[in-house]
Amino acid sequence: MSKCLDALIAFALGDAFGVASEFMTPLELEAEPISDMRPSKRYNVPPGSWSDDTSMTIATIASFIQKGSFDYDDIMSRWLRWLNNGEYTPNGLTFGVGHTSFQAIENYALRKEPLKCGLKGEYDNGNGAMMRMLPLALYAYYRKIDEEEVYRLTNELSSLTHAHKIARLGSYIYVRYVMYLLDGLDPRTAYQKIQTLDYSLFTKEALINYDRILKADIKTLSRSEIKTSAYVVDTLECALWIFLSSRDLKDVLLTGANIGGDTDTITAISASMAGIVYGLKSIPHKWLNTLKRKEYLFDLALKFEKKLKLSWDS
């Protein structure tokens, strides 16, 4: 199957699975584990509904398909229509938006320049930028852009909402890891590669937060040592831990949905990795058919891949 399709559909499935259990505790999930697509009691949406993670990601993709590049004004205007009008949602309802993303989009509505909209405070290091970086990783893979361009685009796309150095670094690590998976490296080798990247353009103050990923082995940690908050570092650690410990995409979806905490983003990110490596073959047809706006998502993924290939060929 298409790499775009496998990655993006897996991402949306992860988001939808995680929506059903978002912010539930491990004890609650032990008593009532997720084994199938379920409705969300928190947001009162039916099974297969995805959240802000997928909405912001597909809005970015729709912009690229039309513009042929990452046009920050166009991306921000689409996010504004998503926030205010429910575009790029499964059912016309916008939900799950984090404070930092919300405020950055509001800044754009007040006519701030896109790259000046993102928040820079210490408490603006949620996972709301990293969760929408998959289109950039796919772009970088197909276009074979150089490292300087990967760094620039990751920092700029992150800074549309999350401009703090810790959030930008988390986005960069995720993008580079996904790029290695797209290149065909196995999960362990790809993980070792991100540990040996040149991070000299990032500050030591930012890098120290990622020591458990970059200087240790995240897979060797016990479940009790893994945090599931929306803090970007916790989310990346948890997503890597799930992915590196799982056998296939189905395993990732069920593990992520039952881990507790910010499960929609955690499961979406880990599932995007699994989709690239394992494809969708382990997914029951029932799950795919339950995914809201499945045909739209499939069509968008294929159009995006075609646009990336045409851009590269030209």
**At the first level of CATH, what is the class?**
Mainly Alpha
The fraction of residues assigned to DSSP E strands is under 5%
Number of domains: 1
Order of helices and strands: HHHHHHHHHHHHHHHH
Which second-level CATH architecture applies?
Orthogonal Bundle
Subunit arrangement of the protein? single chain
- How many angstroms separate the termini? 23 Å
Number of strands: 0
Which spans of ≥5 residues are poorly predicted at pLDDT below 50?
Answer: none
The CATH topology, please?
ADP-ribosylglycohydrolase fold
C-alpha geometry? globular
Give the radius of gyration: 18 Å
SSE class: mainly alpha
The major sheet is characterized as: none
Number of helices: 16
Helical coverage, percent range: 55-70%
CATH superfamily (homologous) name: ADP-ribosylation/Crystallin J1
The averaged pLDDT comes out at 96
Task: Explain briefly what this protein structure is.
The chain is mainly alpha-helical.
Describe the structure.
The chain has a single domain, classed as ADP-ribosylglycohydrolase fold, CATH 1.10.4080.10. Helices cover 59% and strands 0% of the residues. It contains 16 helices and no strands. 51% of the residues are buried. The model has no long low-confidence stretch (mean pLDDT 96).
Write the layout of secondary structure elements.
Elements: H1 3-19, H2 26-31, H3 52-67, H4 72-85, H5 99-109, H6 134-143, H7 147-159, H8 165-182, H9 187-195, H10 204-207, H11 211-214, H12 232-244, H13 249-257, H14 263-278, H15 285-290, H16 294-313
